[in-house]
Amino acid sequence: MEPAAENSNLWRWGNPANAVHLSQFPKLKLFLENKFGTKLNPDIKIPSFKSAPSRFSENDLKNIFPDLKQNQVSLQEHDRLRFTFGKSYYDVIKMLTTQKIFSPDFVLFPETIEDISYILKQAVKNKIKIITFGGGSNVVGAFDTDASMPVCVLNMERLNRLIEIDYDSHTATFETGIFGPELEKILNEKNFTLGHFPQSFEFSTLGGWLALRSAGQESGLYGKIEDIVLQMKIVTPAGIIENIGFPRHACGPDFHHLFLGSEGTLGIIAQAKLRIHKKPENYFWKIALFRNFENGAEALQEIIQAGIHPAVARFSDISETKLSSLISHTEKKGFQKIVQSLMKSWLKSKGYNEPCVLMMRFAVRNDSDYTAANTAAQIAKKHGAQKLPSSVAASWEKTRFSLPYLRDTLVEHRVFIDTFETVTYWKNLVPLYHHIKKALKSNSDYFDKGGILLCHISHVYETGASLYFTMITAQEKENEIEQWQRLKKIVSDAILENGGAISHHHGIGKDHQNWYLQQLNPETKKFLQAIKNYIDPENILNPGKLIDAKS
Amino acid sequence: MEPAAENSNLWRWGNPANAVHLSQFPKLKLFLENKFGTKLNPDIKIPSFKSAPSRFSENDLKNIFPDLKQNQVSLQEHDRLRFTFGKSYYDVIKMLTTQKIFSPDFVLFPETIEDISYILKQAVKNKIKIITFGGGSNVVGAFDTDASMPVCVLNMERLNRLIEIDYDSHTATFETGIFGPELEKILNEKNFTLGHFPQSFEFSTLGGWLALRSAGQESGLYGKIEDIVLQMKIVTPAGIIENIGFPRHACGPDFHHLFLGSEGTLGIIAQAKLRIHKKPENYFWKIALFRNFENGAEALQEIIQAGIHPAVARFSDISETKLSSLISHTEKKGFQKIVQSLMKSWLKSKGYNEPCVLMMRFAVRNDSDYTAANTAAQIAKKHGAQKLPSSVAASWEKTRFSLPYLRDTLVEHRVFIDTFETVTYWKNLVPLYHHIKKALKSNSDYFDKGGILLCHISHVYETGASLYFTMITAQEKENEIEQWQRLKKIVSDAILENGGAISHHHGIGKDHQNWYLQQLNPETKKFLQAIKNYIDPENILNPGKLIDAKS
Fold first, then answer.
1. What range does the domain containing B359 cover?
2. Which of A70, A208, A257, B413 pairs as cysteine with A134 (C-beta 3.0–4.6 A)?
3. Does the residue B150 lie in any domain?
């Protein structure tokens, strides 16, 4: 893999060279146009922005941070704008509709842990907010901040070094500003892998993964980032906090979990020791088509509860299964060909009226992985699954990191496209799926107006799994913000009211804060606030997020 | 399994009906007598104790806790003495040598979470220390306290109810005063298991496991208690704190890890939601004999790093392998017969000069478990292992919870017998083993005087493993305390100086506190102290343990 390219365009995803156009997806375009009853035209023009002037001059910053080198400080328009928005649909429409935007006053580039400590010390003294920036790929309003205090962005990109690899113990310690591809390249050189591949992989950093509790596509085998990390060095206004580490221990509280998911409010995670793994000898797929969502969910539950762990497990509902067949670039090939030819006649006759595809990718580390995969396939069959060829997965493999590019072109065509995700226990999983669909149906005209809701089950555990939804509908012109807020509220309320968590791996940011706070009792909130108050009494670390110091 | 019997004898383990006598182990007795150069006689008489008078009368307690029922309050000698000592060798010799002992002033028996909240409120008001008691099986000086403040023991045994089982999601919620056998019995009725079997299983509680980060013998499959717990309700002077739960989530800090291993200093864990599992269809053993410790350690590392997870993995060094053969009750049977007959001639000729036994117990949940076990056996063979029959494991199965009874009779024969354990990364595992042996050799006359050091590797992870040691030597009469302190210091210093954790699953208590504190940097200590100060500003929760509120 190549090291991370730019992800610096104000709203577009990734590397401009990889951008796609909707015309490359004629079937999808036609399908959406029929659904929405309107032609899709690329008629959005995101205005070009100028940030408000910084409240600091170069000289001011020299006086506040005399120990930093000149190239560690930036007041550049480009740098400041880059840290203004995340990469969600809501970020895009905020750009679309906001006349005046707020950008951080300046950007600092620490190069060492000592730099971070120094910056925090000076920031406390001068009452400057610190927002830590990794790859900028967040989709939860993580940068959303107000202008009441001066704001400094801490760009971690220069803290990107390998500290140590212990091939014997399968551990590696990195600085957290390192991007996914760089980190993976270092490990791959010795035939190792971290195994952490979120969709943002190419444009996100280790620090971002840790601070927002990221999950990779192969979490079934390697776990979420909280399962991967062993030890962290966290720089805070109250000093450098470091947990004991070790594979496991019985040495008092394991406090590093407080900083996982702390989203920049409790400290800057500067270094992390991680579990690494030998690269699997091989990968292979088991693909199964189910008659409906319930059958597939039951099969997947039985597979995982039998102790079988596909690296990737992704079970799409009927809407996602259908739509997936429309985004193959070329005709009559792979997934599209198979699903089309199978679905159109033969399947209906066999009762596959609501065909749903389960894709399981197994990593081969030893022979038992083959046996496990075969047992998984048998369980699927028991639940009525039809085996599909591995080529169905080719589209997933090709687009595993690139679907955001498709999002971009859809947005330019005034398509509302947003994702949300949750996690719950198995008993509640299919009911929650139906509750969310029902909430959208009962509380809006979403489906009446041609809106599409896609869903897949992924990140599967013995006790439950994640549900990942994509909403696609026609954008309400001149009403973009309100439309998003209205739909977001409906689905988020439905999640909480029906026993889901407000996020499994996207995080909280500003977008989920309201629902996050509802999940905590008042005494738990006060407890977290007390921790915040001790670590950050001046409330400079990403204030306004999670539990705020000032209630 | 039967529900927990009494573990209430002041120093003896478990159920008096199961006590053993050294005469049942003639080979062991002879071996030790030869080693120590003295006859072993049961000449220790533990004095019978009277506790100092309580500082409270029945009336005092009625006034302080008017809302409690009469049978929730005890000033009885029996109850108070029971909570004075743990179950370690050090506890026994303290009893042996201390003239005046300190017992808690009174014992309370909460029956609900509300009771606990109420007791804490009154305790804060009246400045009474609270020591939470589960099964009393600790071996790290967890009860060691001073008499400077009044002391109340909170006996959790009446909070022993099942709250909810979700067989669909494989979760169960219990109150934490429940003992291992009761909990397991409830789950077994529906063919489920928690899979958590510490050696103390019969006489320890869920709450104790959580508060001290316990590990069960089958941790290879089910994880340590911190891997098993999903959600906890923790009663503190600052209110009831409850984490978000779910199989995984991205909803901010996961703060329940602060209370795991908090050893009663941060709150009373009252309820816990746990992962449960279908009982495996079957269990089977793979037993292998290696030429030396290094070969077996390498094999075990390769097995676990190939993604193979035996439920139990126990690899004994040469000393433990030898001693294990001496504790079979009957002659010419099972382990003893095989090891004897094999070892005496044939093995030496094949280069098994330092025979070390690896026992792996596999749980069968699906066919891949057989494949995995066979691969594990092949890896062992590659490292020079000789296959042994499964019957070798019969002794382990028989004595898996009962070795403490043997400890008792050894202690009565003036044998010093104590265990300690650590965990480190693979790279450091065998070196740490040798460092500890060397430290004992260089800094004491332990081996010169016939002292025996047994060790096994267990609790195996991809990144490292635990080392579990047993020290057996002749007791230095009239010098019992000093002897223990001297040896404890040598091995604990050696652990820390050579990259081990001071505990993998026993916990900290008073015995490990000194070394625990050395593992934390000053800023981390202050951070933990700040958390303690917020939760427990009056310092009533097990004061003096872990990070004390008053530094």
1. 282-400
2. A208
3. yes
